[in-house]
Amino acid sequence: MTTNTFSEIPASMRAIRLTDPQDKTSLELQEVPTPTLREGEVLVRVQAAGVNRGDLLQAAGHYPPPPGASEIMGLECAGVIVDAGSTNQQPGTPVGCLLAGGGYAEYVAVPEGQLLSFPSGWSPAEVASIVEVACTVVSNMQLAGLKSGDTLLVHGGAGGIGSFAIQYAKALGATVAVTAGSAEKLEFCRQLGADILINYREEDFAELLKNKCNVILDIMGAKYLDQNVRALAMDGHLVIIGMQGGVKGELNIGRLLSKRGSVSATALRARDLADKARIVADTERLVWPLLVDGRIKHQLHTTLPLAEAARAHELLANGDVTGKIVLSVA
Amino acid sequence: MTTNTFSEIPASMRAIRLTDPQDKTSLELQEVPTPTLREGEVLVRVQAAGVNRGDLLQAAGHYPPPPGASEIMGLECAGVIVDAGSTNQQPGTPVGCLLAGGGYAEYVAVPEGQLLSFPSGWSPAEVASIVEVACTVVSNMQLAGLKSGDTLLVHGGAGGIGSFAIQYAKALGATVAVTAGSAEKLEFCRQLGADILINYREEDFAELLKNKCNVILDIMGAKYLDQNVRALAMDGHLVIIGMQGGVKGELNIGRLLSKRGSVSATALRARDLADKARIVADTERLVWPLLVDGRIKHQLHTTLPLAEAARAHELLANGDVTGKIVLSVA
Question: Domains, chain B, ranges and CATH?
């Protein structure tokens, strides 16, 4: 135990592992070695870990961790620093963490640049529900240049990303259009501030929003590509962060050119440390004041014990979720 | 004749008109009314007008002028201000002009924000050869964020856009790769400074440049879309400014996402006046010093009289052109 260490750290810990690589539901708590720290990392005792679609993809074998990252799932968490390693952080400090992996565990090693403070009055589960969506939305809205007066279209407005994006864009002064698959989900979006509500089962968003969207935040990929380009306004920017509707789609370059449009596809996980540190710092600067003053509220759908990760994945996969699912770690 | 007027301006002038809308070669000099000035425009007596692929498309019926623009072809020219209209410009001043149309004529009305000075030592034909390519390349390299140390891939390196882009990117400190269809054209590109020369008839540029290109400036559209995405580096940006290889292409969003890549498609002509004024000002600031000190040289393939516009179009369409074709106006 060094002077940087807050409490006795056990050599092993419990973490969720995929016990059968062929079975995405085989998520079980197992005893594994506690992570060792690399230069610039701190050890965090996890109190709550957010569940993201990336974790579902990883369990299904479609989203391996980037080189050097933990094999354990979990892309965000909240907890307490217990070993500051080589950094000047203080053991005992509560932190939110953006992770390349490792959150579904009792301890996780976190690069110092990926630590966020606790917004005043927020619980660990609430913090764990907001780190990944906030960093994702902030970095993509910066890329697309969303500004006051713009119209943003968010697909899947009732999900974790969507529910955050609605609130963030409204705080920026944008008009927000959303798609969702039920009247209940659309009502949830409306309560978060969404201005234009579209049930994708009943209406064609591309027709309703033709040439109107300055920015589109998309999770569908190929399935919506052509419709999204139709919905773009002049100088509009489509940012694709998920491919739930397929990987390869037809791009009408002529239509895109007539609008001077842009299509970007991004992911946070594989970014390098400097990039992530910049995004985390921007997110804390731009978003955390909005969390403290209540302009953005957490959207915590439910909290389950870490041991029930399989059930959490099933819930998220089934799609009847508004906001986020978080795993609590005893 | 007002005090702002340099010389007697005739009520009519000669200009190239398409006499048969079904025949793109029916380009003839005809007598038409001299343009009248709108607020903020000056009248320029044209000395030389650049020929661009957009003019070929317009003659073929595929690229109508934007609302409010002249029906006459010609997207750039050099000449002398003969009527300053409501502006503070000085009649008698030699200028280069970025145009939404109207250059294939003895006189053209030009928004003040689209005037450029004459670089010291440059002739009207030389200036007319560089305005459109310089504004196009500068605005697209700004969009894509090309910087020193980056690798830029330019398709059609021996053409007007290509020959300028090579020199501009080298001046910025980038490594430049080009494609062209013959050893002669590639040698021309090499002499302009290109570092990597690829004959697209013999080699697969996507294989040679896989994951290496920070920026790609493309004129082929659909035909090269998939290969271009393969060639992009991490955080790379593909900018499409022409669709000589078709309008609709398959976009591999998964591959784009794995690189956090962007695809933009742009055109200069339909931009609003404020946008064009900004681009013209940036181009004069960033490029004109390089024209004066010789780091960028004009690439004037040949000059033909205005009356031979049809022949100029035929030459450009046949593809045996390195650099630009300019029409001289007596």
Answer: 12-130+269-328 (3.90.180.10), 133-265 (3.40.50.720)
